[in-house]
Structure prediction request, 339 residues.
Amino acid sequence: MSPALFLLLAAVAQGDTGSFVIRNFRFASGETLSELRLHYRTLGRPHRNAVLILHGTGGSGSQFLTPVFAGELYGAGQPLDTTSHYLILPDNIGHGRSSKPSDGLRARFPHYAYEDMVAAQYRLVTEGLHVNHLLLVMGTSMGCMHSWLWGERHPEFMDGLVPLACLPTQIAGRNRMWRKLIIDDISGDPDWKNGDYATQPRGLRAALQLLFIAGSAPLVQQRLGPTRDSADAYISRWIDARFAETDANDLLYQVAASRDYDPSPALGRITVPVLTINSADDFINPPELGLVERLVATVKGARYVLIPTSERTRGHGTHTAAAVWKQYFAPFVASLERR
Prediction:
């Protein structure tokens, strides 16, 4: 690691952290939670160049502090230079250090959906951090989908959107099928016991296997396991590590939360510039469906970039490898700042 990158990441690690508590939060399902806790991290000082960065399913805001993301975007002269931008990195409902089923309610935790997650994000930004306008809303995977919803629900609140690795339409086809399999692997396992298990159910391991395949990419996995034995060893280590750190109820809720997502009927409400980026080797959002091209054409001022498969792409995970798409992102952010 270069000295400059080391200093940058050391500064990033010292960003402000906190939790915003929303009293008596009412979910779209009609359920309520007396205290909904949203954990967050902020970088930089509050001012007009506020940027909301939203993570994917199973992730947290801390994933945006890694060298492959922060090291490419947050430093001096970089697109999201923290001396001139105020970055907001929340842990969404059910993730990270925010309120989630494994805190104690288990399967009695309210059944949140993307509508609830975006509503809570908005309240964190406006009521918790007192920000009344955002330069940019961007997100990866689930956060990508949330970005589209922000553009529809709060079209005057931001200057631009950057959704990374998703489709602006209902989750269907294979994308829905592997999610349904994960849900069934957990909830159909007798060891799950309606969420009241004493030890993690065996179905969690099967669910994680599907999650691995969904996020995989042939070139990446070939490098990681170039022989039969190395491939077997790698996937065994990966599954064991994830099993040790994952809660079945949390994962079940995280995957199920996408059930209400469908921005396609209201894309015309988006009035700000949009840069949406996918990669050609993304198993979850395969380009051959042609959905993004058709739908983005209905959004005035939107541009779609499809990153070709290469040694630099990471399948679905390309969304966090900022060096791969920074050449498109940097001028887009600069154009927002000139407006």
The mean pLDDT is 95. The two ends are 36 Å apart (CA to CA). The longest helix spans residues 228-245. The chain has two domains: 3-171+262-338, 173-256.
